[in-house]
Amino acid sequence: MAERKQRIWQRLRDLKRSLTIYQYGRRAVELVWETDWRLTLALGVLTILAGLLPAAIAYVGKLIVDSVVQAAQSGLRGDRLMSLSYLGLEAILVALLAGGRQGLTLCQSLLRVLLGQKVNVLILEKALTLDLTHFEDSEFYDKMTRARREASNRPLSMANRTFGLVQDSLSLITYGGLLLQFSGWAVVMLLGATIPAFVAETYFAGAAFRLFKWRSPETRQQTYLEVLLAREDYAKEVKLFQLGPMLLQRYQAIFRRLYAEDRDLTIRRSGWSFGLSLLSTAAFYAAYCWILLEAIAGRISLGDLTMYLTVFRQGQTTFASGLSSVGGMYEDGLYLSNLYEFLEQPVPLAQGYAHSGLIAEDGLRFEAVSFTYPGSDQPALQQVSFHLQPGQKLAIVGENGSGKTTLIKLLTRLYTPTAGKILLDGRDLQDWDGEVLKRRIGVIFQDFTRYQFTVGENIGVGDVKYFEAGDRWRSAADKGTATPFVESLPEGFQTQLGRWFKNGQELSGGQWQKIALSRAFMRTSADILVLDEPTSAMDAEAEVKLFDQFRAVTQDQMAILISHRFSTVRRADQIIVLSAGKLVEQGTHEDLLQQNGRYAHLFRLQAAGYQ
Ligand SMILES: Nc1ncnc2c1ncn2[C@@H]1O[C@H](COP(=O)(O)OP(=O)(O)OP(=O)(O)O)[C@@H](O)[C@H]1O
């Protein structure tokens, strides 16, 4: 007994929670209002017009029939004129209704475009405020993808359905008002018959959404496979390794699985929907039958009969459309809840406001810095400490996965250390103003982005303030040793790169690296340069040239260099060796050779390879 009671309470709680989804109707209308209040106002007025006019037309229809009967019986000219004027009135109302409906469609079409753009911009703006951690979290990524996928249509659809429901409700209320003259019981009977269909619609819309949410990982896989199969950067490997058929097969297998689930739900939904709509149709026709009998018995006029007939016919269509609005609104509401969940994701607070350090010219200090990636149980860095003075060049050496890139991510504040401190000029990195810090650090990651922009713009991205400044591009390219090859390109700095756009040129790996390196020199005010594997794709001569040049142009700057090439590393003022996240050796090339430890071992190994 107690268990049953509990179940009933649970159901009621579920229903209450389901109903809260409808509050998104208000939020969607607010969003539409913010997008364009004039169009929204027009939409509102036209909705009321389109909601009230049908009942008015039905009523005028009754007046026409009654006046025709009257005129036929009396044969008076006045009565004839009266029925003709009712006819004229109906024609005007019908024209108004058609105009109103057309206006509604027009407003909706315009709002669709504006709203789609607005929501997309809201999502992208939000994405800009988020941390890198969010992007690396697959659940969060799904949330964003879902929001983006549905961005352009759900809010408008929700708003349209809300307005549509208002329109249908107004029509039904006015129809109800007309019907009330006949019998209050008929109205109650008709309303009662709609409730099961309403509950079923809500239930199935919820089920459809849950399905959509569960399968986000599968949909993500599908999208990824599409990218692999259809993008030019993967085409080379897909063709040579003959991956195509296998990838396509996976793609289809996912589709088949998703389709099977979809089909089951759609069949069940349509079965229930049909069954329950039969119930409401039965109620409609029972009331209809009652009215017919009343007319035959002469208790209502012929005009009344015509009016009720119209009210019934249209009432049922309006009811069906209202019902689908309710189901649709529920579904839209669920998608919108996902959109708002994303938009309301707490934004990391702006960290720090300091524009200068506490100890001028102190340089960079790592003090017992440790870091573990979210969701990982192994620390990527443990208790790392070192000091880099202004003008010094530091090289970081270590096997794959030893934590070199992680160290750079902490230095550039993409992540925050889990323990320990990073100090710049004696001040904790977290206390620095983000903008100031970014201006002081020029960084190139090994997986730098190859933008499908022009050569100049590809360098310009290094300092967005000077994104299009040709003179800055040139001097940055000089420092990054890119000028000679850029000048050999057909349109120099204006050459389009990549294959996505017309006349796009592809570059070699080493040429791309030179572009990326030049990017780091765009920030002329940067006093810390961080280069993660900057020369891995360059030939030996290019590398030597680059480093001679690098030393010359970065005399006053601190530089941190990650490299597996000892020819590069040995020139640094200070070298640190990382192993499994720990700093195991530290010193100059000579010091480390003397220590005869890990560095000396790796150095000799590489040197032997060249003999
Ligand atoms: N985003 C991430 N989330 C979780 N773990 C990560 C992430 N990035 C790196 N790791 C882990 O942290 C450790 C250090 O990685 P890191 O990229 O810093 O190595 P690395 O020294 O730069 O390697 P390589 O020489 O191959 O570039 C590795 O064990 C890696 O698996």
TrEMBL record:
Residues of the ABC transmembrane type-1 domain: 41-331
Transmembrane parts of this sequence: 39-60, 81-100, 185-212, 272-293
Major site of localization recorded for this protein: membrane
Membrane topology: Multi-pass membrane protein
Stretches assigned to the ABC transporter domain: 364-605
Gene Ontology molecular function: ATP binding
Pfam families: ABC_tran
Cited Gene3D superfamilies: ABC transporter type 1, transmembrane domain, P-loop containing nucleotide triphosphate hydrolases
InterPro entries per UniProt: AAA+_ATPase, ABC1_TM_dom, ABC1_TM_sf, ABC_transporter-like_ATP-bd, ABC_transporter-like_CS, P-loop_NTPase, Type_1_exporter
Keyword flag Oxidoreductase: no
Entry keywords, A to Z: ATP-binding, Membrane, Nucleotide-binding, Transmembrane, Transmembrane helix
Compartment annotation: Cell membrane
PANTHER family given in the database record: ATP-BINDING CASSETTE SUB-FAMILY B MEMBER 10, MITOCHONDRIAL, ATP-DEPENDENT PERMEASE MDL1, MITOCHONDRIAL
The protein's name in its UniProt record: ABC transporter ATP-binding protein
The species this protein was found in: Almyronema epifaneia S1
